[in-house]
Amino acid sequence: MHVVAVLALDGVVAFDLTIPCQVFASARCSDTTPAYEIRVCAERQVTTTACEQQPFQISSRYSLDDAIDADTLIVPGVDPDQPLHPRTVRLIRDAAARGARVASICTGAFVLAAAGLLDGRRATTHWQLASRLADAFPNVQVDPSVLFVDDGQILTSAGVAAGLDLCLHMVRCDHGAAVAAGTARVIVMAPQRAGGQAQFIEHQVPIGDTDGLGSTLQWMQDNLDKPLRLADIAAKATMSTRSLSRQFRARTGTTPLRWLLDRRLQQARELLETTDLPVDRIAEASGFGSTETLRHHFSRHVGTTPRDYRTSFHG
């Protein structure tokens, strides 16, 4: 079974620590068996920094030695000013050297950077601390505008709730869209927020809201197979295209057409995983129109072809 080790370093942010535990423990394979083994690994009893007025202590049955053979190593957020023990740095470097997937949540990126894992790589952290990360580690290409960065073996996320998006993304990469969507339902969150979505979002508009943008989102979702243009969406929302684009980005963090593309890709993935429909039928049903267009967007955003994706994830 895939082992996920979550490092509980002294000064860990409690919410960041619990995010991977909740997400990966909630993931179930198609036969309902657990998809992961979770280990919270700590050198000793550690103190959190989540509540400045009332910090509390955490202890775990697992030590740092129990992270040595983990398939995925996750570093939750910590106090960036907290000095790192050399043993922690060696553990993280060794994990990367043996090919383990290494990820950070929020200020955990400072730990990965201190271990040298982010040199020459694109990475992110909480937008309030992005400039500090860039100044402290000039060899890191810090992108403060995204929810998370998947740079292959090394992944980083922005602040707090973006860790949920990153962990769900890893579940999707490991087990496909259906398992990720099931996990999202268990933890009651939206199953898909793309890594390139903006960090600062005024608030998410739930699909199905009867007022304002929510009804337009529902209409877009219900008509993914139609050739929707920006003007069509603006007309449905009874706005000008300029007003629609401005309000859409303020409410969802992305543009109407990018949101539409993400939803179409999500639907194509689910159809590839759960049906035997020919690829050309899936292209039509998800709004891409042709196999060539689906293949283009799929290769660009998913990193593989529809047929190869189906080979890997068809249930």
TrEMBL record:
SUPFAM superfamilies: Class I glutamine amidotransferase-like, Homeodomain-like. It holds the Pfam family DJ-1_PfpI. Transmembrane segments: none annotated. InterPro entries: Class_I_gatase-like (IPR029062), DJ-1/PfpI (IPR002818), Homeodomain-like_sf (IPR009057), HTH_AraC (IPR018060), HTH_AraC-typ_CS (IPR018062), INH-QAR (IPR052158). It comes from the Bacteria. CDD domains: GATase1_AraC_1. PROSITE patterns: HTH_ARAC_FAMILY_1, HTH_ARAC_FAMILY_2. Keywords: DNA-binding, Transcription, Transcription regulation. Residues 214-312 form the HTH araC/xylS-type domain. The keyword Protease does not apply. PANTHER family: ARAC-FAMILY TRANSCRIPTIONAL REGULATOR, HTH-TYPE TRANSCRIPTIONAL REGULATOR RV1931C. This is Helix-turn-helix domain-containing protein. It comes from Dactylosporangium roseum. The lineage of its organism: Bacteria, Bacillati, Actinomycetota, Actinomycetes, Micromonosporales.
